[in-house]
Amino acid sequence: MKLFIDTGDVGEVRRAAEWGILDGCTTNPSLIAKAGRGFKETVLEICEILPEGEISAEVVSTDREGMLREAREIASWHPNIVVKVPLTPAGVATVRRLTDEGIKTNVTLVFTVSQALLAAKAGATFISNFVGRVDDVSTDGMAAVAETVAMVERYGFDSQVLAASVRHPRHIVEALAAGAHIATAPMAVLEALFRHPLTDAGLERFLSDWRKAGLSIG
After folding, report:
1. Over the range 78-91, which residues count as b (16 or more CB within 10 Å of their CB) and which as e?
2. Segment 19-42, tens digit of pLDDT
3. Domains in the chain and their CATH numbers?
4. Is residue 2 annotated as a catalytic residue, yes or no?
5. pLDDT bucket at 74, cuts 50 / 70 / 90
6. Element (H or E) spanning 82, and its range?
7. How confident is the model over 164-181, as a mean pLDDT?
8. How far apart (Å, rounded) are the C-alpha atoms in residues 147 and 112?
9. How confident is the model at residue 140 (pLDDT cuts 50, 70, 90)?
10. Do the Cβ atoms of 189 and 167 come closer than 8 Å?
11. What is the Cα–Cα distance from 21 to 127, expressed in whole angstroms?
12. CB burial class (10 A; 0-12, 13-18, 19+) of residue 154?
């Protein structure tokens, strides 16, 4: 499964990229606004940090012509950019057109397998199934991820299923079990994947024994 970082903070992307396990980055208008920098400069810097990554950048228009105009502009910035488009009638129509033009797309704000079907039929590169926001209303968000994976595999759609709105490491584990192709998570969740009390305790024991023995390397 691919791991993306969900952020508009270039510093976070740079730190996570140092681990050598990052496959891409997802942004959205809220994350870009929070970062407090220009949209294009932020996206292009992320592309430079992750030269082999897939970088999602979102349109903000809500009508088809506006989305198409913005999507073509965004896609022209860098070959690694994937254009994010919301799951609306205008959005799906936009994705169909962009797919025909060879522009990669990420359909966002997908909450059900029926919505995911529309994105897949339009030719979406990624289908972003939101998990945490569904859990917030007492429903199992990961169920839709599993259903979407099954649909894509059963009918041979080219779309990849992306587990989004990830809130904690358990969501990553559940995304693996559901067969998601990608999970995108904020920096805090990615950092939490490293942590386990037994890892900390084991490392401290190893280092303590090493120091007591007076050993050195070289």
Report:
1. bebbbbbbbbbebb
2. 999 999 999 999 999 999 999 999
3. 2-212 (3.20.20.70)
4. no
5. very high
6. strand 81-86
7. 96
8. 9
9. confident
10. yes
11. 22
12. exposed
Give first-to-last CA distance, the chain, whole Å.
39
Distance of CA 50 to the CA centre of its chain: 14
Give the integer Cα–Cα distance in Å for 97 and 58. Answer: 16
Query: Pseudo-torsion of CA 16, 22, 23, 25, nearest 10°?
Result: -20
Which residue among the candidates 2, 84, 104, 212 is catalytic per the annotation? 84
Question: 108: which strand partners?
Answer: 86
Which amino acid appears at position 184 of this protein? Answer: T
Pull the structure tokens for residue 132: 């945490």
122 vs 139, residue with greater confidence: 122
Distance of alpha carbon 1 from alpha carbon 140, whole angstroms: 21
